[in-house]
Amino acid sequence: MDSYQTPLSSRYASKEMSHLFSSEMRFHTWRKLWLNLAIAEKELGLPISDLAIQQMKANLHLDAEQFKAVAEEEKKRRHDVMAHVHVFGLQAPAAAGIIHLGATSCFVTDNADLIFLREALTLLLDKLAILISRLSAFAAQHASLPTLGFTHFQPAQLTTVGKRTTLWIQELLWDLRNLTRARDDLGFRGVKGTTGTQASFLSLFNGDHAKVLALDKRVTELSGFAYAYPVTSQTYSRKIDVDVLNTLGSLGASAHKMATDIRLLANLKEVEEPFEKGQIGSSAMAYKRNPMRCERVCSLARHLMVLPQNALMTSSVQWFERTLDDSANRRVSLPEAFLTADIVLSTLQNISEGLVVYPKVIERRILEELPFMATENIIMAIVTHNSKPAAVASEENSVSPAGEEPPQAAGDRQEAHEHIRVLSHQAAKVVKEEGKPNDLIERIKQDKYFEPIWSSLDSLMDPSTFIGRAPEQVHEFLKEWVEPALKPYENALKQAKGVELNV
């Protein structure tokens, strides 16, 4: 290649999304809009022949020769829309005099953009639903697998691998909601004229306001929209772009968070993204398994999160009825936002389809930290035992579930706390200064003070007693929230296939 091509389309994005924002699709859509306008104008009484409509219908797609003719025409006219009007007229000579009748350039450029926004959001919604479905299966599979929780990236109380996954899914469900709202809120610019007053169409219909309103409604229907914006300037408000790109930027934040979590887990060797048999992690360090898919997600998600700033700034400087300094910016920022979101979702789907969990590593890390976490349970157990009559205490080795404190009586909690504090500090010193395993439980087993509950220590240290309702939360969340949200996407889910990436 001897000229620059955006890697968004040449390397990463799906064929469907790349085609949607292609020149072929853009100019094909312009011709469909001109056809819809002509059909509606004819229905409302303007002298447009059947032959003109037929010729327009027969020439909605451009071939290589027409693209060449448009490029040559644009050099002369310095106006892309009028270059296309001219070339379309050559293909449909019976319609040459009525193509673009009463319209301004934004009739095709803006209405086409709204069509692309709507179709692109639909493509993303299907992909997002598939991603949520894949992650939901993973969450269900690992709903009860205890894992060390982290707050501040410091060891915290246990959770489960499935419960952690639901945190990612919940944010993606909000993105599904936001993308749906953005798509369903989209209206059509319709036929509004040069400054939005519909003056040219009022003139065409000899001052008949009803026919102008009917024309706007009919072209909107022919173009597949439920409604047209009631008022516009020459363009539709660029605040619409803000709404859409902010939604995509929010999706980028969800994706970045999820991919970052997986990158951190990969460092801990607990969970890894898929790694192909012949994949090379490093050109120098042959042993490396770099999380390159998640790194790609983070890289592109950052780009996606920045793009809404373009829309915000463009919207804020649209002088009066319009200014053209939005055009070049939007030609870049709108397609890039959707191509980037498309790549992010495809990559996350690929990751979710091949996530690898290492339970033994997870278990080892739990056991390194669990003794410290179990100290409160141990305190409660010894206090409870010491507060009971001797006869009862000798018969019972009951253990309270994690987080549930048994009723306290005369047992001395402060004394128990002091014993645990001393032993915990000794164990922590061994871990931090000597690099040895956590031996707190062994120290407790050697301390006569805790002898009454030695036989209960294994139960007190069972990781499954530290995860609360995490498994139940996973299954409840999937049933009550995820399943209903995915209901509209059943066909897409049935047809979904695995994603292969260029790694």
TrEMBL record:
PROSITE patterns per the UniProt record, alphabetical: FUMARATE_LYASES (PS00163)
Positions of region (Disordered): 392-413
Domain Adenylosuccinate lyase C-terminal: 370-478
Database matches in Pfam families: ADSL_C (PF10397), Lyase_1 (PF00206)
GO biological process, one term: 'de novo' IMP biosynthetic process
Known pathway: Purine metabolism; IMP biosynthesis via de novo pathway; 5-amino-1-(5-phospho-D-ribosyl)imidazole-4-carboxamide from 5-amino-1-(5-phospho-D-ribosyl)imidazole-4-carboxylate: step 2/2; Purine metabolism; AMP biosynthesis via de novo pathway; AMP from IMP: step 2/2
UniProt-listed InterPro entries: AdenyloSucc_lyase_C (IPR019468), Fumarate_lyase_CS (IPR020557), Fumarate_lyase_fam (IPR000362), Fumarate_lyase_N (IPR022761), L-Aspartase-like (IPR008948), Pur_lyase (IPR004769)
Reaction(s) catalysed by this chain's protein: N(6)-(1,2-dicarboxyethyl)-AMP = fumarate + AMP; (2S)-2-[5-amino-1-(5-phospho-beta-D-ribosyl)imidazole-4-carboxamido]succinate = 5-amino-1-(5-phospho-beta-D-ribosyl)imidazole-4-carboxamide + fumarate
Its EC number(s): 4.3.2.2
GO cellular component: cytosol
Protein name in UniProt: Adenylosuccinate lyase
Organism: Serendipita vermifera MAFF 305830
